[in-house]
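Team,

Forwarding the record for the chain on the shared tracking sheet. I've put the sequence and predicted structure together so nobody has to dig through attachments.
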Amino acid sequence: MANRIKYLQERRTRLLGPNVPVFYKEPVHLVKGEGVWLWDADGRRYLDCYNNVPHVGHCNPRVVEAITRQASTLNTHTRYLHEGVLDYIERLTSTMHSGLTTAIMTCTGSEANDIALRMAEAVTGKRGIIATDATYHGNTALVSQLSRSNVPASGFGLEDYFQHVVAPDSYRAIDADGTLFASAVSEKIAELEKSPHGFAALIVCPFFLNEGFPMQTPGWLKPAAEVVRKAGGLLICDEVQSGFGRIGSHFWAYEKQQVSPDIVVLGKPMANGHPVGAVVSSIEAMTAFRNGFRYFNTFGGNPVSCAAAMAVLDELDEHNLMAHAQTVGQYALERLKELQQKYECVGDVRGSGLVFGAELVSDQTTKRPASEHTDTVVNSMRDKGILLSKLGRHKNTLKIRPPMPFSLENAKLLFDTLDEVLAETIGIC
């Protein structure tokens, strides 16, 4: 197996180029998936506690059947009339607040965020964008500028259009009601308004997932949204990771924040791994964009992609997976709190629905990030057949974000194994 992994890595570098990332010190060579399980080339089974792309489970039969049926009937580009994309957008927007009625279908979240930024320019006539300093929204030349950790060597001068505010941190920098965050946004708006670019939009993941999903009270984002609206800007909510019922309490994370975004961006889990993304907006914003920019996407909204995306919505509804996420998520938080009491290295626990985790520290008093220990835990869990990851400013927060059918039994296996690994690695932190 070691020789095969080495061969694949060498071949990967030769064919894909250097610095193409893989998870884990010993990469996993996957060949099969089903539900919440993955299998490697040696037949070993892994519990998937990380992948939100197969939102309703790996190789979900309903999604597979929908793709197969539509692919065997028709698939073409999007300059012909077809009911599939229209039916899907009607169904999708019916889950959102009444102002969001139109959509552009794309292939990726990066494309969708790129459109969202240009839509904000079309509506406001300005180009200044505010994001947090620990986020990620994609990798186009424009969107990559939103991420402070992923800025390219050359930004084509686009970096001048962006301002960043410090990401929320409910563990080290308490902002109970979001007023401090709103104040920071207000300051950046003032800076942009003094520049030639002006202020167009604030873009956030409403669950701040890449920032380590800090715990926030419902409505935490409202003060910032009010500041944005007062300044004539738009609120863009990137629900690529947090949407489609994942947080358990609401179908969209912006609902938990009690805000009404002007634009919602979607991607990864929309079609269970089929490449689908979307930008959802009001008809007014859409009209401004369509009149201001010529935009066409060959594959965005094609019949097969829309069939897959519709099947995901059907699966979520039939199996009541949002409520399921809430139930399993509550159990997960209980188990995490037990581990926090048991191990000094578990500094903070957080989550909602089927996105949860713990921030690992050297000790609970100083809150010093235990980034190396977190790496060890992630790799040790992989060795025991559990796949998860890490994120956050200090890369010390366990990121657990499994497919939606993830059960209480699966969660019990996850936390029993995590208990074992923390006991075995406790000296490292």
